[in-house]
Amino acid sequence: MVARIIHKERIRLFKEIFNDLLSNGENEVYKQVLVDELVNTGKFWESNALNGISYAMRNWEILEHRPDWYSKRDSG
Predict the structure, then answer these.
(1) Low-confidence winner among 8-12, 23-27, 39-43, 46-50 (lowest mean pLDDT)
(2) 61, 75, 71: which is closest to 30 by C-alpha?
(3) Per CATH, which fold does 2-72 belong to?
């Protein structure tokens, strides 16, 4: 049960940080910038952050349009 709560918290935090990085008027987020931001929260190790990117690509709205650059998946 605790593991699920931690997992959901990390997913929420991942989405929040990803969206914050995009809110600067950018259409894409560079992988290392995203990883650094996640690690700086103290809730992710680098390996967790990289796994989070893979998880997000498989399960919800991010795409890698070019190597190491991620954006939101178009809803339409």
Answers:
(1) 23-27
(2) 71
(3) Arc Repressor Mutant, subunit A (1.10.10)
